[in-house]
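Two records follow; treat each independently.
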Amino acid sequence: MKKTIIILLLAIPLILFIALFPTFSAENGSSGIQSNNSNNTTQTADNGTGNTSSTPEKVAFIIPHADDETIGVGGTVQRIMEDGSPVHFELMTSGDAVTSQLLTVTNYYDVSIPANATASERKKLIREDSFKKVMGIFGCTSYNIHSFDDGALNANVVFTTMENLYLKEGYTVFYTTTGDGNGDHLACQQGMKMMKDKYPNLKYRQFPIYYYHANRAVTSALTKNYTDVNVNQYVAKKKSAFQVYYNIHTILNTFYPYSDGLYSIGPERIYYMN
């Protein structure tokens, strides 16, 4: 009798262990998965786009003239691309005006120009070529050149361009210039305002041209919020891009960043909404 009781006492725990083993195993496995997922979760830092998700937001730069992108956001462009966000450029005008106030250009890179080209057509071909060269320096392959005449840009064109980028191509972060004494810059600002009024939840950024220079007109932005971003680490490509424009003489000596000491490679002022 005692022998039977002893056998039962030993057998019961064994039977219970066998019966409950799958439950223990499932619970331990589930706990292991949660811990693993938690350890492997990565967070995407704010790359200047306001993005905190794992999918980089698409960023579009609306540029009035070739060289504005380098002067205003040459470092910011590199930073955003380095952080993995797709970047696209829309060059709105060719900067082809030839007047006593506006610089002529030098065909430093031997661009192919028809013999019967007017001074305006010649300037257009050279400046657009310089923009393409700068896109190559920054490593940006996504861009579009509208070739509007210098001074002929209007807010409706800018708005339509931005709206198409949003609705058809999924761009949700937009950069353009602030307003100042230049009509094309102001058209870009007004077009962005129209876009912001219609799509207030997207991200809008502005950058002034030569805001740090004593002789430049005071800028106006759509917001008072701004950050001065240190971009010194991107000096090499920004300086190379500047040199492209300087070689064709589209940047006045007084505004060239290495000519008078009034310009430094950074910071770059970014006005931001949302």
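The next record belongs to a different protein.
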Amino acid sequence: MLTDPDIASVAMAVGEPSRAAMLVALLEGPPLAAQELARRAGVSAQTASSHLARLVEARFLTSRAQGRQRLFQLAGPEVVTLLEALAVLAPRTPTHLVTDGRGATALREARTCYDHLAGRLGIRVTDFLLEREFLRLQGDAFQVTRTGDTWLRDFGISLDGLRAGRRPLTRACLDWSERRPHLAGALGAALTKRFFERGWLTRLRGTRAVRLTERGQVALRGEWGMSMAERGPASWTPEP
């Protein structure tokens, strides 16, 4: 018997401001203790414990013991996708996402969206692949062209192996800070992995922010011929 998804229960779990603040704090990436999440949400330890229990029950969070503390983290990529999508629609208010302006700048410049590249750098890489016609945007996904297949193979990525998996090869993930789509899916994750393997990216400790290394800057400008100039904001509507 078919049933409708219970969207209301999801909305109720996320919609409480203190729980939302905790989820956004965890969107940075690393697990956090209940005490830190209480501080981020501006609530007492007892109130935080109740909210965290609700989020675990709703399968937004998982937890594990570490010494005398219990650490909480987002339950998986589906939760990250949901929160990023909500961030695109949400009005701009003073953020709980990071604790200082430098952190906010770093996340907007380059970060991992679970396992693929996002932020301004993620958008630039996606634009490069589209401009070179290695990818074409079709609806809510990207199509790899024949030229792109060859180029990716030369870069060390086998599409046959990615297609054999259960995960979609490509997906257009709407970037919450740039409000434009960046490349996600198995290919987005594989490209990001190759960036790390080649030493083009380094992680900023305690956050999902990443930094393009000097080697990465040289490679993108030289090997790829990619412009690193920042583009102006643009709206995006999926094609039918």
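Discussion point: The chain is about 45% helix and 20% strand. How would you locate this feature using only the token line?
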